[in-house]
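Support case: tryptophan complex. Customer-provided input:
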Amino acid sequence: MYQERVVSGMRPTGALHLGHYHGALRNWVRLQNEYPCMFFVADWHALTTHYDTPDVIEANVWEMVIDWLAAGIDPQQSTLFIQSRVPEHAELHLLLSMCTPLGWLERVPTYKDQQEKMGDRDLATYGFLGYPLLQAADVLIYRAAFVPVGEDQVPHIELSREIARRFNHLFGREPGFEEKALAAVKKLGSKRARLYLELRTLYQEKGEDQALERGHELLDQAQHLSLGDRERLFGFLEGSRKLILSEPQAMLTEASKVLGTDGQKMSKSYGNSIAMREEPEAVVRKIRTMPTDPARVRRTDPGEPARCPVWQLHQVYTDAETRQWAQAGCRSAGIGCLDCKQPLIDAVLAEQQEFHERAQPYLDDPSLLRNIVADGCDRARKLAQETMRDVREAMGLTYD
Ligand code: TRP
Ligand code: SF4
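Agent response - structure generated as follows:
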């Protein structure tokens, strides 16, 4: 059976913090048990905004991969690689750029937002405008079915879908397509073939979206189809084009939000973050000095957890019983803030203990890390090359 693939990337921003872990990485760790997963360091993406400080990127790449492994990403199950080591991403980006309307890129919400937010940098560059297209190439080159991302990235995946559709429409012509598609239909077996053709008629003549969806399911379950036949059948279901690039879907994480020690979004640049592999003493210090409900000036003043950033962390780290205790103790002034923080400190330290343990072998022997990434890059390159062969052929670039 055709395995639906998950692809996601992260910019190398240096040591990851608990916000990254609970917001994204924990989800990656879960996904690797369910799908073949490809996770990559988006180093070119980092250059789209930080082209003037490239030196920080290199150290960050390795730190970040160590954090992935520390979180429990298993290199036996997942493919870990670095974007720039698979230059096919750049080739696909270039080829897609030929048929991407400028307006599609200018309309991506992050384009104007980020330019305004990062006012200190000059982001009126070609690379920055094209970065959602680079992201589309990252995903389309592996024919990803699902892309786990945060909400802010959903428009980028939407753009990837539109690009795939446009590409297939423009370049999915194939001489003798209809005959080849009908031959592929036969390979489904007579029962499935009949159902497939019925669903195709329902969709094409009556516009029933449900029929299209059921058709996709049928094809997802079909076995022993070559990639070419699969593309033809997906394309034939909707029209008369081969589907060379498949449309990915954003997979929104129901992530628990870990806020920073000041109750704002956790971010290294705000100075409110706790790193995944923070020194234990620093964890203790950072949590002990966290601001609490300002109403609790003295130990005897009652407080309200809803106004306290420490309470936010309890939501993620402690069990219902402890939260009950903290809530009641806070409101009655039965406990002090340091008491309230202790179970949190214990929970964060316990979680980090595992991170430190998983990271240690790679800190002791960096060649282990290099080998994992080298293997991942080889695997990724192979898949990317397969797609590029089809893309070049479709665009008339084979010349043989
Ligand atoms: N743009 C993403 C970010 O800034 C990172 C990224 C690059 C990515 N390529 C991707 C995420 C492909 C998912 C899929 O966070
Ligand atoms: Fe915050 Fe806990 Fe102090 Fe209440 S007791 S203010 S929840 S730290």
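The first strand starts at residue 6 and ends at 10.

Case will auto-close in a few days if no follow-up is received.
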